[in-house]
Write a sequence for this structure.
């Protein structure tokens, strides 16, 4: 299933800007991710976030993530992400202008 998300915030700036759109690939039972994939996930405190996968622990299905901006949240601040928190993988970035 494909979904379109509008980006709010600048954690992935300068590559992905606030107001841009991304297309994500979402299949709930299929959780295949690689280092460098951009994902959209729900964090219990910070809500819906977009980040890049920097490290994976396949044994415990945990993902460490970071934004592109040096001021964005990352797993050092928010902890690792579980596979069940992930909505999908970004497969396409759409610049509105």
């Amino acid at each position: 299933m494909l979904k379109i998300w509008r980006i709010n915030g600048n954690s992935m700036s300068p590559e992905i800007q606030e107001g841009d759109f991304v297309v994500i690939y979402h299949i709930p039972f299929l959780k295949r991710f690689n280092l460098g994939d951009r994902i959209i996930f729900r964090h219990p405190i910070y809500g819906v976030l977009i980040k890049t996968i920097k490290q994976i622990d396949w044994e415990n299905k945990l993902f460490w993530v970071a934004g592109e901006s040096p001021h964005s949240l990352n797993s050092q601040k928010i902890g690792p992400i579980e596979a069940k928190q992930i909505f999908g993988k970004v497969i396409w970035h759409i610049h509105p202008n």
Remarks:
- The mean pLDDT is 90.
- The longest strand covers residues 47-57.
- The chain is about 5% helix and 45% strand.
- Residues 2-94 form a domain with the Umud Fragment, subunit A fold (CATH 2.10.109.10).
